[in-house]
Design brief:
The protein is mostly helical. It is 85% helix and 0% strand. The chain starts with a helix and ends with a helix.
């Protein structure tokens, strides 16, 4: 590669879109659960210990997954990895959202 090819400037909006896509993955699962913690605990009839245990288990699984994800990040282009990650996240979120709706509306008031 020539020196000119190494310094190809990417448009700034591409970097912004990557940042927004990466942050969108975390906003729903972590920030909303912490902001609405009292409501979340009340609706699902959980204690702080039970919710903390769920977050801990998720954290451990995520940590182990990150260890195995490194080789994939080196092997495939970021564009494809981001697209695949967003697809899987959306499939999982859709399933979780349906389960949450069922739980919320099946709770007797």
């Amino acid at each position: 590669m020539t020196k000119k090819q190494l310094h190809v400037k990417q448009p700034f909006y591409i970097i912004l879109l990557l940042i927004v896509a990466g942050e969108a993955v975390f906003i729903l699962r972590f920030v909303l659960a912490r902001v609405f913690r009292p409501t979340f605990l009340d609706v699902f009839q959980l204690t702080n210990l039970e919710l903390g245990t769920c977050f801990s288990v998720y954290g451990i699984i995520a940590f182990v997954s990150y260890l195995f994800g490194g080789p994939y990040a080196d092997r495939f282009p970021p564009r494809k990895l981001m697209a695949i990650a967003e697809k899987f996240y959306n499939l999982n979120f859709e399933r979780d959202f349906k389960i949450t709706l069922l739980l919320i509306f099946s709770v007797s008031v």
